[in-house]
């Protein structure tokens, strides 16, 4: 994530064209949730979500809340695949 050039991960993230869900934890002590703004800039097709009451491992800390965001994404992908 440090390399800003064309071979860096942020550049690669910008080429992701499939539906993507990026979840940040508002209480994350490893990855600053303010990074979500950068992710939104580099991944224009992604849904960026910040969950204010979770830390770095949102899917373990509040699996039901994470599932509320994941389920619609999977359902949309399933409908698209059926076409």
Key terms for this structure?
83 residues; 4 helices; 14% strand
Largest sheet: 2 strands, parallel
Q: In terms of per-residue confidence, which ranges show pLDDT below 50 for 5 or more consecutive residues? A: none
Tell me the strand order in the biggest sheet.
1-2
The helix tally amounts to 4
Q: What percent of residues are in strands? A: 5-15%
The gross shape turns out to be flat
User: Radius of gyration from the CA trace?
Assistant: 14 Å
Instruction: Give the helix level as a range of percent.
Output: 40-55%
How many DSSP-defined strands? 2
Secondary structure category: alpha+beta
What is the distance, rounded to the nearest whole angstrom, between the alpha carbons of the first and last residues? Answer: 36 Å
String of helices and strands: HEHEHH
Overall pLDDT metric? 89
Structure description:
The protein has 83 residues and is α+β, with helices and mostly antiparallel strands. 42% of the residues lie in helices and 14% in strands. The protein has a two-stranded parallel ribbon.
Concise description?
The protein is of the alpha+beta class and about 80 residues long.
Topology, pairings included?
Layout: H1 9-13, E1 20-25, H2 36-42, E2 46-51, H3 58-61, H4 63-81
Parallel strand pairs: 1-2
